[in-house]
Amino acid sequence: MGLTVLMNAGPWLSVPPPGYGGIENVVATLVPQLRRLGVRVVLASVDSSTLPTDERISVFAEGQFGALQRPYNQVCGIAQAHLAGVVRELRARDDIDLVHDHVEAVGLATLAAMGPDAPPVLHTLHWDLAKHPELYGGLDGGERIRVNGVSAAQLARAPKALREHSLGHVHLGTPLAEDAHRRPRVTKAGYLLVLGRVNRGKGQDVAVRLAQRVGFPLVLAGPVGPYHRPAELAAAGDGARQNPDVRYFQDEVAPYVDGDRVRWVGTVAGRDRDALLAAARATLFPLRWEEPGGTAVVESLALGTPVVAISRGCLPELVEHGRTGLLTADEDELGDLVLAADLLEPEECRREAAARFTPAVMARRYLALYEQLRRLGPPNSSSGPAAPARLQAA
């Protein structure tokens, strides 16, 4: 179709990432499908990225994620240096039809400030939109800047100015959903799994207390701050507690991790991660925050593992209660739902994922947003959130 897109993944991790990496995994899932649809992709990432693309631009040789634990005045130039490289590239060439940006706050602000001579920008919102109220609440993207969410629930909580720039939402996809309905049944083990970065918003402390109280085996898989393995965290010493996720883990989660009923296995990647997820009785999401996208949710369904969760954020959009998972607004009810999860059929989870959450479905929806972005004029403040409803049928 002759469309060239600069895909701005940012400077924090390579694409695909070497383990945990939410946004970078989304980009790694989306780009191959866009290229199959005829889109030419220029990836703005770090030089260690290995994802096949038509071109790659970078400022940093390696991902800078480890620097995020350092004081702000030591790291505040990292994202800006990366964006400066993107801006230089855009000013030096005239073949970029649009920019698809994934860099929180800095990407949106920098690209909006480029003015009317720069290409159109679609900025995907992967995070909690209660952050950055001054940026989002006063956004004026002119004729060029539009945003999309990763769930309808996420956009519903957005400031008015941000909603007026929205083209709607696109649910996340996973390669695990391709032919998921044909995947052989996996024998389920007895454990439940909490998959993702250890963080108060994810509620791992709720999960470990529940496991000890109800009496089920629980596995926690994911990094604690910048530490991907228990040995790394143990060797880091007291200085690691500068990171709030480390403090949370050590104070509220680790006292319940006994290596028997409750285990923290660190970051698990690749086939080992998929095997761990597929063999779980259920995945547990005891959320304290409004989950915007739910990558681990769609991966769980694709591997035939039902979801037990607090019904917050995108969860009601992704999980059909009583069919592919069990949802509750009451934290105290989670124990009963864990016991009932064995009644759900893994085949139903895989079938739902194959219909809704494949990379091809996600790419076609983004392609529709690209085409709409290129046709649009200035945001219409009187339309409110009506524009998203038109997009979702694409």
Automatic annotation (TrEMBL):
InterPro entries: Glyco_trans_1, Glyco_trans_4-like_N. GO terms for molecular function: glycosyltransferase activity. Keywords: Glycosyltransferase, Transferase. Pfam families: Glyco_transf_4 (PF13439), Glycos_transf_1 (PF00534). Residues 186-338 form the Glycosyl transferase family domain. Residues 20-133 form the Glycosyltransferase subfamily 4-like N-terminal domain. PANTHER family: BLL5217 PROTEIN (PTHR12526:SF595), GLYCOSYLTRANSFERASE (PTHR12526). This is Glycosyltransferase involved in cell wall bisynthesis.
